[in-house]
Bacteroides conjugation system ATPase, TraG family (Cyclobacterium marinum), 832 residues
Amino acid sequence: MPKRKKTAFKLPYIGIDHSNGYDVLYNEKGEFGVVLEVKNPVLQYAADPGNYNNFHQLYVNAIKILGEGYIVQKQDILSRKKFNPKSSGEYLQRKYDEHFRGRVYTSHQTLLVITRKAKPGFYTYSLKQINDFTQSIDKVADLFVRSQLPVNALNQNQINRYIRQILSMNFYDKELCLNNLLAGDEQLEMGDSAVRSISLVNTDTIDLPQVVDTHMERSDKESLKGFPIDNMGFLFSVPHFKTIIYNQVIEIVPQTSTQRKLELKRKRHSGIPDSANNMCVEDIDQLLEDIARNNQLLVNSHFNILVSGEKELIQGTSNFIESSLFQQGIIPSKNAYNQLELFRTVLPCNTSELKPYDYFLTTSDAALCFFFKESMSEDEISNFQIRLTDRQGIPVKIDPADLPMQTNRINNRNKFVLGPSGSGKSFFMNALVEQYCMYNKSETPRWLMDVVIVDTGHSYSGLCAYYGGKYITYTEKNPITTNPFAITREEYNIEKKDALLTLISVLWKSAEGKISQVESDVISNTISAYYQVCFDELSKIDRPCFNSFYEFALTFIPELIQKENIPFNIDEFRFVLKKFYKEGEYGSLLNEEVDQSLFGEAFIVFEIDSIKEHKVLFPIVTLIIMDVFIQKMRFRSKQRKALIIEEAWKAIASPLMANYILYLYKTVRKFWGEAIVVTQELGDIIGNTVVKDSIVNNSDTIILLDQAKFKDHYDEIASLLSINEHERKKIFTINQFDNTEGRGRFKEVYIRRGASGEVYGVEVSLHQYLTYTTEKPEKAAVEIYTDRFGSYQEGLDHFVKDYENSKMELNRFFSLVNQLGIPFGEKKEFTD
C-alpha cells in the first residue's frame, strides 16, 4: 500500500485589518472582504410568493450597488443541534423543558461575504480603494436595514471562529477541534465524518432548467398543491447530515468587455450554420436582449453544497441532494474529483481559488433564483412570552400581545379562536392559560395575570386545581350573583348606563328579543332618573340594586309615558322582571353583592354547563360574569387580565347585546386586558352580524385550529375573518406536513396577529397532558392520584412514575387506575 502524502493545510489569508468600522479579511492574492451576518427575509412556510420576489429584488439592488469587480459570497449554514433549554422555575414548565431536552433539530444561519477583487499585477495598498469599499458595504448594509433586516459585521474573533467552524464542519459545538483531512476523489474525511462537495454545474456541461423562478410550488400532496417554497428548500429535509453549507457565489464581471466577447462568440457560431450553432446564437441573443431590455448585469456564478455526515451514511445523504436537484432540472457535477479545492473555496474571501470551469455565465437575475431565501422561526424578544413549537417540533417563544402592539401589528390584545371538535382547541387554550398564569407563582414575577373563564364543558378543571384557583359551578342552591347597580357617582358614565340598559332589555325581552326605540329610550331615562335620585344626599334609596331599581321604575315609568303620551307595556315589563325581584324565582341574581373574595383571585373558572340550554338564565348569568370581570378589572389595576368565553359567547351574540359587547371590548383594553372568545360551531358564526361587527372586528388576533372539516365552506369563513389567499394556503397546511417523526402527540394551530399569521405546534409533556385532559376517564384517574397525595404536583409525579413502571399503554393504565380506585403503586395484587 503506497504511503499517503502528508501536506500541511495552508490557510489562504495574510491577515485581518480594521478599517472604517469593519474588520477586513485579506487573502494571499490581495483580495479583501468583510463577513456580514444577515437574515433571510422569507420565513419558512410564509405562503406568500411576493416574499421571494422581494428577496430577489433586494439582492438585485445590492449587486447593482456594488458593481464590477465585486464578489458576493452568500453562505447558508444548516447544522444539527440538540435542544438544551435553561431550566424554568415553574413546575409544569420544567416538565416541558425535560420533554424537549436533547431533541435534535436543524438550526440555520446566513453569512454574506462581500469581496473586492484585486487588480492583476503586483498588489499595492490603496487607502482610497479601502474607503470606496467600506462605503459600498455601508450602502449595502443600509439597504438591508431599510428592509427591516438586521446586519452585523463580524469582528476578528468571530471571523477566526467562523473559519475554524468551516474547517471542522462543526457549527453545533462550543469547543472546536480540528482533525486531519484525508482528501479523496469523492469526499474528504475528517475524524469519523465525511464531507462531500456537490457542485450544481458540471465541468463539461451546464444542465440547468431553461426557465427558473424565484421560488417553486409544491405538488407532492393535494392539500399542499400550489404552496410556494424555496427552490433549495429541500435542504431542510436532507437526512443524516451534521452540517450543510450552501455556498452561493456571484462574481460581477466587467460588463463591456464580456459583452464584446459574447458578440464575438455569436459571430463565430453564426458563421457555421447548423443546429447546435443556431441554438447557441439564440441563447446569446436572448442573453444580450435581457441585459439591454431589463438593465441586468452579467455575472459569473458558482453554487456548491458542502455536506458532512457519518461515513456510513454520507452516500444516502448525497443521493437525496442529487435527486432533489434532478427533480428541478439540475444535474449536478459527476466529475467533482477536486473535492479539496471545492472545500477550500467555501472559506470566506477565498473564491479566487475557483477555476473558470467552476463558473457559468448568466444574468444576475437568473443567478439569484438559486440563492437560498428562507429562514426559520426564532424566539421573539419580549418580556411577555408563551412557548409553542415550530414546524420541526422545537419550542419557540412568541409574544401574543405586547410586542405586536408595540410594533403596530395589532391594535388590541383580544383574540377569536375557532376550531372544530377534536382539533385540539381545548388543549391549546389550556396551554395558553397555563403560561398566562405561570408567573403568578414566581418569586420575582415579570408580571401578574388574572384569568377569568366562562366555560360550559369542564375543560379547565385540572388547570384550575393545579393553580389553586376558584372553580365556581352554577347550581340552583348556589347561583352566581352580582349587583351591577352598585356603582358610585364617579363610576357612572354613558358606557355603564348602556351596559345596564342592555341588561334590563335582556331581562325583559330575552337575548333573542327586540326592543323598540321608544322602549329603549324609556329604560334609558329611567336609569338616568334612578341614579339622579341615588346620588342625591337626601335619597330614600338605601342601596342601589335591582330591587330598588324595580320599585323606582314601576313608579317612574307610568308617570313618564303619561306625560309624553307614548306606548309602553308597563304591565308586561312589571310581570316579566318580577321574577328577579326579592322573593322571585331569581331574586338573588342581581341583588346580592358579588363574593368580594373573587376580586383577589388570580384564576377563576365559572362553569355554567348546567344552564347552557336555559334561555332565560344562560344569557343573564353570562352577563353577570362579564360584569364581575369588569369590576375585577377596575379593582386589580396592577395585573394583566384575560376574560375567556368558551361556547357561552352564543348567549350574548344577539343584536340586543351588541352594544354591551362593544363596551366590554372597549373597557378591557383600558385596563391592560384582553377578551378571548372560543367556538367550534361553524353555523353559529357564519351570517351572525354580531360576531363579525362586535367580536371579530374587535379581535386583532385570530387563532384557528385544523380547518379541514370546514374546507367546503371556507369562502364564508375567509370572508368573515378577512383571510386572504396567502393566509388561506398557510391555514390548510395545519397538520398536513410530514413532521411527526421523533415527536410526541401534537396538534398545530394558526395564529394571525394583525394581517399575517404563522402555524405553530402544541406539544407538551405528559405532566401537562394529564393536567389539560378533558376526557372524563382520564380526569378521574388523575384525580385519584391528586386526592391521594394532597397536591397536584405530587399526584402528577406519582402518576407518571407508576405509569412508566407499569410498562402499559396509557389508555390501559387509565382504565386500570379507575378500576382499582387507588394509585397503581398501592395495589396489593392485580391479575391482568
User: Anything to note?
Assistant: The CA atoms of residues 692 and 720 lie 6 Å apart. The mean pLDDT is 91. The chain is about 40% helix and 20% strand.
